[in-house]
Amino acid sequence: MEKFLYAQKSDKHPKINVWFAYPAIESFAMASLGYLSIFKLLDLSENIFVERVYADSKTTRCSVKDVDVIGFSTSFEIDILTVVKMLKKYNIALKSSQRGQNDPLIFAGGPAINANPLPYQDFYDFISIGEGQSTLKVVEFIAQNKHLKRDELLEKIKDFEGIWVPKFGKYDVKVVRDVLLEPVSTPILSDKSFFKDTFVIEIERGCPKMCNFCLASWLNLPTRFLDTQKIINSISNALEYTDKIALLGAYVAGHPDFDKIIDFIAEKNEISPVELSISSLRADLADEKLFKTLVKCGQKHATIAIEAGSERMRKIIKKDLSDEQIYKTVECARLSGLKGLKIYTMIGFPNELQSDIEALVTLAKDLKNKNKGFELAFSLSTLIPKAHTPFEDVVKENSKSLTEKIEYLKKEMHKIGITLRPSSVEWDAIQAVLSRCDISLADYIIEVCERGGNLGAFKHVWKEFHKKKIFKSLDEAAQMPYDNSKNTVPWEFIKAVPRELIESRQKEYLSLV
């Protein structure tokens, strides 16, 4: 069952039909605030009929032959596999160059593709780089100019801010930031959502701390805090339809009026139970008041991100967080009544030493000893350097070394009775290639899909391309996918972050290693 939290237009006279697709199953699509918020923008347009389409959609209201535009909302690099599968499902040519006048225009947007669209360039007619308003403007333009031939439309679309048309090569594309006059929040409550009937509201966008590896903070500059009263009003309205509220933001507890927002939810919880959840918290911002509110609102666990095990490494990555702050936060969580914490950590940073890895074990052991009976689960991932961050030109650590570090950590964490959940080094290598590759990987990706789209297919097809001298080895490509001998980066034409800001931060961390 779905509940629309906005008034749909019932008397529309649409000029074009749009499929807005999510390359995953419906439950994940209905949990994606970015996907649903752009769907709402399109749905409110007088000129656009828009339909949601998922990887597991069985039927559609609008036949593919009547669709003018298909947009994909992508969150992760690996989403491209499902995009290809969905295009094949509906018998749409996979490459832009293979589509004709009667085929729909295919576009995509989302954080992974916004940072570096180059590996995916052959699949899309245009790419929406930036935030929601640029997508709406270009689709509105297509609706008003449907009479134009395909190439004429693309010629005009390329002049829009935040839009890249790959067939015209590299040209400066300015990233468009939305003016957030209203909080972005769940427009449709669904019992099929992964977060069943949960109202998600973005109370801020970006993060002023700007850790050197963090795409979410660098790609969303400047940090924008939403108006407090509008946030409270939105939550109040949502509570008429659901009792589940989730606060979203990379720096969520850093909102200037965060206490006021939490107090409002706590007051509502006194009247009628409210289930509150919050995205990952900075350990230096989580306090007793927040944890106690989470407990009162039904939460048993929370998540904090510490990233590195040593203070030395946290300084290098610009995670300004001391061991003492971590100790205090975990103790505070325990005393507030939470059952446990999930702690995000990473390895593979520049100039990482064995002592930094050992420091993570020591930290975990101390936390365990100081908080008897409190559940601690560590999540571990490897650094995947991202475009438009200070670590964009870092040589990723090789897979053998990373695997050895993970095996060491698993062994030592097991000794002290702490659960460690590491990411897959091999999948991380694939993501690292997709994150910074400077050429189209269309032929490779299509072949991977033909072979099943699993990790084995990725590795096997890569070996075949490597033998043909098309690619270097997978591990070499993961470490540095592009030619770094030039004094530039391949995605520099995407004007997302001032180069001088990135270069300044690079000089800063290099002085510490």
TrEMBL record:
Its Gene Ontology molecular function terms? catalytic activity; iron-sulfur cluster binding
- Entry's PANTHER family? RADICAL SAM DOMAIN PROTEIN (PTHR42731:SF1), SLL1084 PROTEIN (PTHR42731)
Which residue numbers delimit the Radical SAM core domain?
193-419
Question: By its UniProt entry, which Pfam families does this protein fall under?
Answer: Radical_SAM, Radical_SAM_N2
Q: Which SUPFAM superfamilies match?
A: Radical SAM enzymes
What are the TM regions of this chain, as residue ranges?
A: 20-42
> Under which name does UniProt file this protein?
Radical SAM protein
Q: Print the keywords alphabetically.
A: Membrane, Transmembrane, Transmembrane helix
InterPro entries attached here? Elp3/MiaA/NifB-like_rSAM, Radical_SAM_N2, rSAM, rSAM_horseshoe, rSAM_sf
